[in-house]
Amino acid sequence: MERKVMKTALSIAGTDPTGGAGIQADIKTMTMNGVFAMSAVTALVAQNTMGVKQIVEVEPEFLAQQIDVVFEDIVPDAVKIGMVFSCPLIAVIADRLRQYQAENIVLDPVMVATSGDRLMDDEAIAALKKELMPLAAVVTPNIPEAEVLSGRKIVSAWDMEAAARYLSETYGCAVLVKGGHRINDANDLFYQNGAPQWFMGRRMDNPNTHGTGCTLSSAIAANLAKGWDLPVSIARAKNYLTSALADMLDLGKGSGPVNHAFYLQGEYAERAT
Q1: Which of 212, 226, 238, 256 is catalytic?
Q2: pTM over 0.90
Q3: Residues 171-193 as b or e (16 or more Cβ within 10 Å = b)
Q4: Is 227 a residue of the active site?
Q5: Is 211 noted as a catalytic residue in this protein?
Q6: Active site includes 82?
Q7: Considering 20, 213, 215, 238, which one is annotated as catalytic?
Q8: Per CATH, which fold does 8-261 belong to?
Q9: 135: which DSSP letter?
């Protein structure tokens, strides 16, 4: 029997016991986008659709070992970085990704949960900007996160472009500022190599948006792993997320998750009658 080889992607992020965000969402997204998903846990997060109750970060040495065992065995074709809670963990991630010359790094600067809970302090944000952003192929902040990273207020499409330009030129990475917060109908501003590009979207009438940032960034990483360039990877990821939202899954008592497996069909999707 012929052996099969798949493209691979690594998620470095925190957990979500309810499965809508964090590593659980990343693994589902990467799998449904056709790559073999791997993970390194930065923190154990007691969260659900209603909020975050507690965060227990892993020891830096243990995070380093997790990343080591992945790269020593199955080298990922892309890496997605999600919630990183502290400076020591950021330092470990940056050190290991440089050591292994990791490619196609997608940085989702998770600073605030959908519920409004803050997930990073000012010192960690400064370390993220210094250590991780220069390593990234693309950084994917939403508008509140882009405001924090750029130090600029964003109240218009022009402001989105100005913030993206500043971040890209300052840290040497492409930037995707997601417009779902306040500004427009989910139109995202992509800035790379001095050129802005708008990705137009439509706002879904769906209150269940838990983990949408994790889902989008993981889908981008999966498509980069498969060999698509950044603009195409972003377009494909946006289409996937829009479809996952349009499936109108309704779980949980708060802002629920999207259906990552919306197009799963066939024998293994059948329900008992």
Answers
A1: 212
A2: yes
A3: bebbbbbbbbeebbebbbbbbbe
A4: no
A5: yes
A6: no
A7: 213
A8: UDP-N-acetylmuramoyl-L-alanine:D-glutamate ligase (3.40.1190)
A9: G
